[in-house]
Amino acid sequence: MIEHPPNTYTIVIKLGTSSLVDEVTREPRIANMSNIVETVVKLRRAGHRIVLVSSGAIAVGMKRVGWSEKPTKLAAVQALASIGQGRLIGLFDDLFRQLNQTIAQILITRNDIIDYTQYQNATNTLNELLEMGVIPIVNENDTLSVAEIKFGDNDTLSAITAGMIHANYLFLMTDVECLYTDNPRTNPEARPILLVDSIDDLAVKTDSEDAGAGSKVGTGGMTTKLIAAELATNAGVTTIITLSAQPQCILDIVANIQRSDTTLPAADQALHIEQEIAAGKIPLHTRFLGLPRDTQIRSDRRFWLLHGLKTKGVIYIDLGCFEALTRKNRAGLLPAGIIAVEGLFHESECVSVRVLPTKNSALHEAAEVGHCRVNYSSVEINLIKGHKSSEIASILGFADSEYVAHRDNLAFPPSLPPLTDDLTALKYIP
User: Any coiled-coil ranges, and where (predicted)?
Assistant: First the structure.
């Protein structure tokens, strides 16, 4: 990994559609975009490496063609994205050029990183741009994306981007200052949450009218930001939610981090943040601490399997098989440990791995624990499940591997608790 000057960070900043486009008029919010650009350039000149993840292409396209409502027809949405992408990157380029800052555009879908070599190429490109002093602007390629290859929202894309480049911090800019215990717009008793050490223990209400719902021109509410925060923190990326209308607050938060002791216990850090906010030194925000180095996902391949690939089906295994797959000197996934298969998928595709309490348990009792990339199709696995590897050739007529999934193609998140007969303790959010 490349060594960087001390007290400088790799920072990913996710900008929502409402940060860039007026919710009513669909006009670009030039003043806010200018503030964003000035903030990013100041961070860059201070030695930080910055990646922007930007939404807004479809909304900008709607304005260009005079449409007031987002169409439901996929081809029309993709056409609007193709119109808006050029306009949006052009606006950014005009603004950054005033400050002599070079930018680069990267459009991506899950299909672009379905192969690990392509994933590494995307990572290398981002890192090379950062070393050149360029600011990459990443967006999902909505012109080509369909449901099967979409990341879902740019909160998820920003978290995956942060994990790919081993960022130190991910800023999720939103239309509320921070995470609250409930929706502050409807519940005056809602309290701000300043620091989160464990998302699993977080007690907040997030429903369709969640604690900071998405705007009419965007796709992400607070629920998607919590999912993105869990994804990023698993990779060791501290994630911060703060107000998009005041992008300059990023400067204050970064300066606060630089002068703070981030090795202190979470309770001490929370007290320090509360005192700094009360003193007016930093704005209200929520900080999700990245997992410690000894528990976070450090392997690029493991991160790719868990978060870069979309699952195509499910393999159900028993507790004994799960124990064998997660021990220190683990083996690969053998057909003997597989109880059931769900969905249709091909060789080399990614599937969900779920654990059943017993071989006779109903499938709905299973808990998802990770992902794997398989050596056989769903049809073939259905035929060999429960059998010894030595029987594969006689059943299928060939045997490409003794494993359904090699151990290098198995990935489990760091937040899984120790093995237990109570599967309700197992929790994994892909």
Answer: none
